[in-house]
Specification:
Radius of gyration: 19 Å
Helix content: 25-40%
Number of helices: 12
Number of strands: 16
Strand content: 15-25%
CATH superfamily of the largest domain: NAD(P)-binding Rossmann-like Domain
CATH class of the largest domain: Alpha Beta
Structural class: alpha/beta
Largest sheet: 8 strands, mixed
Number of domains: 2
CATH topology of the largest domain: Rossmann fold
Order of helices and strands: EHHEEEEHEEHEHEHEHEEHEHHEHEHE
CATH architecture of the largest domain: 3-Layer(aba) Sandwich
Shape: globular
Length: 329
């Protein structure tokens, strides 16, 4: 079995390759070639924590994996630790033998960014040049990286409630190099950032909308990936109601996506408001953007198909490059 650390995964799997793997996973999901049960949630109320178990099998690509993921939102201030920790075990789909164990903290951020990158590639206007990024946690840099792979972004606006965290992220983004531009600015308000934003990424743990509906420009594309419980939302219900909404998987989105659940409960949308799954657009079975001025919204709650695909791609590339540590169980 091959052990891959976060650094190993980082070396083995660049964003463009991760995006291709994730798009293929979404296509299999939409084509009925994926077995992905709804993930069970195990709460840890004493720490406001959550354990998720996410198995998946992709029959076309032969990816078989399970991820165990914890979300402890107070880790940073209480323990000096990341809010998300995860492991993925990848199995041989022909005999069930474990192939690899991957530190999936970075893999989770990478595949989540890759999903937003695929959505941006399929839904954003071709002339999109400015990104507004909400949040400065572990998901932030991969979100920016993926959007910049998908479109020729020339400027990034950062919005975060803690100025020091925004400054740190700005420095990381400026030092990253291509395709991320050097023009990274910290906004004084959401209104300032959205005044010229063509693509908007929200990657926070907020339970209330991060901006006013009226601040979203015509033709903007939104990637909403932070709210992971039915009572959480980053996007105003009015924005959801007037957007063309695309999700990673309908059943999971209606079970977990607060943006959809709350907007439905408020009478702003109906069950038919979701236009498509991302994989349906990737397969050409559904239409993405239908008008230059249309607002498009990709709502993702995360899907185990992404983890299986990204783990399989990382494993294959790591073996080819001689990355990782082999061991016998």
């Amino acid at each position: 079995m091959l052990i891959l650390t976060g650094d190993d995964v980082r070396r083995a799997l660049p964003m463009a390759a991760a995006m291709d793997a994730v798009e293929r996973a979404f296509a299999q999901l939409a084509a009925g070639q994926a077995e992905v049960p709804l993930r069970p949630h195990v709460g840890v109320p004493e720490a406001d924590g959550l354990l998720l178990v996410m198995p998946a099998y992709l029959s076309e690509s032969g990816a078989l994996a399970v991820k165990a993921l914890t979300i402890f939102p107070h880790n940073s201030e209480c323990h000096g630790l990341p809010a998300i920790a995860a492991l993925v075990t990848l199995f041989d789909a022909t005999n069930g033998v474990p192939l690899a164990l991957l530190d999936a903290s970075y893999l989770t951020a990478l595949r989540t960014g890759a999903a937003s990158g695929v959505a941006t590639r399929l839904l954003a206007r071709q002339d999109a040049r400015t990104l507004a990024l909400f949040g400065a946690g572990a998901q932030a840099l991969p979100q920016a990286w993926a959007v910049c792979v998908a479109r020729q972004i020339a400027r990034i606006w950062l919005v975060n409630r803690t100025g020091a965290h925004a400054e740190r992220l700005a420095a990381e983004l400026r030092a990253f190099g291509e395709p991320i531009p050097a023009d990274v600015r910290i906004a004084a308000s959401a209104h300032e950032a959205l005044a010229e934003a063509d693509v908007i990424c929200t990657a926070t743990a907020s339970s209330v909308p991060l901006f006013a509906d009226g601040d979203v420009r015509p033709g903007a594309h939104l990637n909403a990936i932070g709210a992971y419980r039915p009572a959480m939302r980053e996007i105003p219900g009015e924005t959801v109601a007037r957007a063309r909404v695309v999700v990673d998987a309908r059943a999971a989105a209606w079970a977990e996506a607060g943006e959809l659940v709350l907007a439905r409960d408020e009478g702003l949308i109906g069950a038919d408001h979701v236009a498509a799954e991302l994989g349906e657009i990737a397969l050409g079975r559904a239409t993405g953007r239908t008008d230059p001025d249309q607002i498009t919204l990709f709502k993702s709650v995360g899907n185990a198909a992404q983890d299986a695909a990204a783990a399989q791609a990382a494993y294959a590339r790591a073996r080819a490059l001689g990355i990782g540590t082999a061991m016998e169980l």
